[in-house]
Amino acid sequence: MSLVLSNLKPSSWTVPLGVVLCSLFLLVASATPVVAQEAKVAEPEGVENPFPRRHPSPELDGGVEWLNAAGPISVKDLRGKIVLVDFWTFCCINCIHVLPDLAYLEHKYPNELVVIGVHSAKFDNEKETGNIRKAILRYEIEHPVVNDANMTIWRKFGVNSWPSLVVLDPEGYYCGYVSGEGNRELLEEVIERLIAYHKTKGTLDETPVRFDLERNKVKDTPLRFPGKIVVDEQHGRLFISDSNHNRIVVSTLDGKLLDVIGAGAIGHKDGGYSEAQFDHPQGMVLVDQTLYVADTENHLLRTVDLERKTVSTLAGTGEQSRTRSPGGPLLQTALNSPWDLTVVDGTLYIAMAGPHQIWAHKLGSETLAQYAGSGREDIIDGSLEESALAQPSGIVNDGSFLYVVDSEGSSIRKISTNPDNDLTSPTGEVTTIAGTHDLPRGRSLFEFGDIDGAGEDARLQHPLGLAIHNGTLFVTDSYNHKIKQVNLETREVKTWTGNGQPGTTLEPLQLAEPAGIAIAGGKAYVADTNNHRIVVIEMNTRKSTEFMITGLTAPQLSDSPFALPSEPVKATEIESQDLSPTDSIAVQVELELPEGFKLNELMPVSYRLKADEGQTLFADDQLGVKQEIEAKGTSISLSLPAVRKTGTATAILSLTYGYCRDGNGGVCKVGTTHWKIPIATKEGASGKSISLKAVAK
User: Fold this and answer.
1) What is the pLDDT of residue 26?
2) Tell me: the pLDDT tens digits for 75-115?
3) If DSSP codes are grouped into helix, strand and coil, which group holds residue 263?
4) Pairing of strands 113-119, 82-88
5) How many CB atoms lie within 10 A of CB 189?
6) What is the pLDDT of residues 557-614, one digit of tens each?
7) Is 629 helix (H, G, I), strand (E, B) or coil?
8) Do 349 and 342 form a contact (C-beta atoms < 8 A)?
9) 3-4 and 55-56 as β-strands: parallel, antiparallel, unpaired?
10) What is the rounded CA–CA span in Å between residue 309 and residue 573?
11) What is the CA radius of gyration of the chain?
12) Strand 55-56 to strand 66-67: parallel, antiparallel, or no bridges (unpaired)?
């Protein structure tokens, strides 16, 4: 990990939590040097610019398509906001780890900060806009993302690693960047200093912004990005990690819903099925009547007692490990994205994607520990201690050996187990049975494709899941949208099913980034992740059908009720309005927008009404309720429902509207205007309407 913030002075900046300053890189040293310009706004007296050697930012143009936005976004559009530009690729576990930090910062600074994702792909599959859209939905990203398929923006900003975060100030200047994960506290400190400086200078625009999110364009489904599958042939059960619904679904093998484990809300609460919480669970393994679950984004291992119908925490602290810990007591050792599980002779083996290692826990003991992998991200064969793995995401066993998919290295690994269960000093080797390995300078991480062949000649693309059946491995070759088989004796890799194109047809079979597979009873059950479904494939005929679960629906999560403040900020009080009793009060609002802006037609204008206690004019069920209305041009008409009787009320009317730069809908600001309106209805009054004016910033 490296931290580079231009103008960062070690003597005046304390880096929290052991973040190490590794190097210094100024923008002028990049391939596209720029010339500093004077700021147009005078410097405030007594306030020091935290980045006096800042430089004008490169532009954000050059991408293929924008997502989570109605159109392209420029640095000019973002003036007035602190901007965090996240260079990422959706395969990368480190990039995934950064997303919760970005969400935290976005929610902490909703009116001061805008995050822009620049998706600069590693794998070919990641260059496709449709696949990036699915990744945005899967990882619940709430900020705009540009598909930088040709690495144009990456090169303009001089980026050289995933993830990298660039900080721009409200005047459009490049302040610096930080690489790697675990930098939330440092970024908070930087943002706080920029807010303080630019608020004093008058260059911070705290008007809320709104983006056209992809999630608003899709409907929920009974399953949402299912991850892994376990088949219990003995009891006729199927277990599905319904990852984006944060739960485990249990059904019979003929599709009858048996149980839903988890409430659906993100969390880590233990307890009964209906109250327990998970955070995007993935791999599972069944031992007798206990289901072990890799609760991936909680960084926990959980156990499900299928007889008592309760969920408990087995291991982890709930915090992501930031160090290469050797292990320790179960509930005192932080984990790092456990992704899949398997059990051999009473030992639970964990594919720990975050530190690129396999961990192990002897069931019934009080500890867990590293088992294989040095922690270096690479494909290196050798002893358990010296070998290197790359984001292991699937793991199975044949009773003697572990088989692991290293997704970032697009390879299949074979790992010795310890029959005597000696996990204090295990011995054995890690070898590669498909894909490249031991190439210099980490080149194995970039050797991928879609090539059938033997051993090192075969090419996969970010495989995620494994099953073993009659001496053959079946692999979900996720980014090739296929299932491949690997002969464990000859190491021959062949396409088993899937035509290689993402889609939903069953004949020919099309898959979309399948992540999990399990085989039992002559059938393969595949988690067709991006299609939100389970596909069942007959092993002999390879005929495919969609597995339907009767009665399964998406979880219904209640939203927080809207609560208006008792006194809206900056409410404009107008003169008392004497009106005649009527069924409704007509309100006409003339909206004044900044030059070059227009109303956002994709965002309905809405209003909410609050009235003083004891009011007699408005029905209680109309108070505090969001009402959507149509607007034409800059004239907005609405009706406040009133009763046909005399009385008084002080109405607080809050009108919310979106407006975008004309010809560029990528950044839309959200304006809310509040009015405090004393109203009296009396017989004989001539007034029947109210005229108001709203001025957007």
Assistant:
1) 31
2) 999 999 999 999 999 999 999 999 999 999 999 999 999 99
3) coil
4) parallel
5) 15
6) 754 333 344 444 578 888 888 888 877 788 889 888 888 788 877 778 888 888 877 7
7) strand
8) yes
9) unpaired
10) 58
11) 29
12) unpaired
